[in-house]
């Protein structure tokens, strides 16, 4: 699958989502 | 028991990776009641340390040890007179402790089973009660469960000591939909995923309890079960099974599917379908995924094994003269497949 199918990929998704999600 | 080797023979597909299942041992539980689950656990006692087999029927759970004589000897048995056993809950990396789920139509109790050398008795302490939708043993002596439904759902991680004593309880933010199954994420120890009754894939941070993502899969069958997820290069690869798929066409309704998910954008795509070879019919009934191997019991009574890396069915184990298969479990060492029958017989196959 190309990146366009799934959108931009971030290796650090776990840390990034953890900093954004409500506690 | 005579050695029994089964492998796919298909001269047309030279490129196909063929696996081999070779029977190494047979264990016959004499409980007399219907077998509900089987598993393995490392067990340490005063006079031995060994990889033991656990067999569960509705009214009892037994621990078996392979003796030098070649026979299997019962080490301990735990009896349950009030609530029937539904399943064994594997606890990765845990020794000398077994976890079981008990209940009627759904799980109402989770209990630990162990042997106390202090008083020489087997113990079965209660870990959790309630309307439990799903339970999964996690690495580092943790157990996650979801209780209740919709707005009243509680998702909780329970940490325990080597002896099974409670250490800490951490609440995870519940999704709005009822959790059907949890799965660990290989390569990301603090991430946990679950699939809900509306086919949403949920991602949590196990340390903080935060709900990081909720992704509607949309293209799957309702009631799919997530078995395992792998984290790689910023993507999540999730193995799903479809217990409610139709039997008519195994190519259209595969036993397992692998979907790829970008957690950052919440977009997903179907990556791979694990179907049966041509000419083999049957629908997925139940099974287990371990490492890169997936095993499933089919409605035909056959067990099929797939290699997730190659996306191919590598071995088939048709029913033997004693009857159809009802259970397929990987041993904790990954190299053995435990094939169970309703009468309590467990056949151990080495898988290469």
Record the SSE blueprint:
The complex is a heterodimer of chains A (23) and B (352).
Chain A: H1 3-6, H2 13-20
Chain B: E1 5-6, E2 21-28, E3 35-44, E4 49-57, E5 60-66, E6 72-79, E7 85-89, E8 98-103, E9 107-116, E10 121-123, E11 126-138, E12 142-147, E13 154-160, E14 166-172, E15 179-186, E16 191-196, E17 200-205, E18 211-216, E19 225-232, E20 235-241, E21 256-262, E22 267-274, E23 284-290, E24 293-298, E25 303-307, E26 312-317, E27 327-330, E28 336-340, E29 345-351
Parallel strand pairs in B: 15-19
Antiparallel strand pairs in B: 1-2, 2-29, 3-4, 4-5, 5-6, 7-8, 8-9, 9-10, 9-11, 11-12, 12-13, 13-14, 15-16, 16-17, 17-18, 19-20, 20-21, 21-22, 23-24, 24-25, 25-26, 27-28, 28-29
Please describe what this structure looks like:
- The complex is a heterodimer of chains A (23) and B (352).
- Chain A has 23 residues and is mostly helical.
- Helix content of chain A is 52%, strand content 0%.
- Chain A has 2 helices and no strands.
- Chain A has helices spanning 3-6, 13-20.
- Chain A is elongated and about 30 Å long.
- Chain B is globular and about 55 Å long.
- In chain B, strand 15 and strand 16 (191-196) form a beta hairpin.
- Chain B has 352 residues and is mainly β.
- Chain B is 0% helix and 56% strand.
- In chain B, strands 7, 8, 9, 10, 11, 12, 13 and 14 form an 8-stranded antiparallel beta sheet that branches. An 8-stranded mixed beta sheet of chain B has the order 18-17-16-15-19-20-21-22, with no helix packed on it.
- Chain B has strands spanning 5-6, 21-28, 35-44, 49-57, 60-66, 72-79, 85-89, 98-103, 107-116, 121-123, 126-138, 142-147, 154-160, 166-172, 179-186, 191-196, 200-205, 211-216, 225-232, 235-241, 256-262, 267-274, 284-290, 293-298, 303-307, 312-317, 327-330, 336-340, 345-351.
- Chain B is built from no helices and 29 strands.
- The interface between A and B is medium-sized, with 17 and 25 residues.
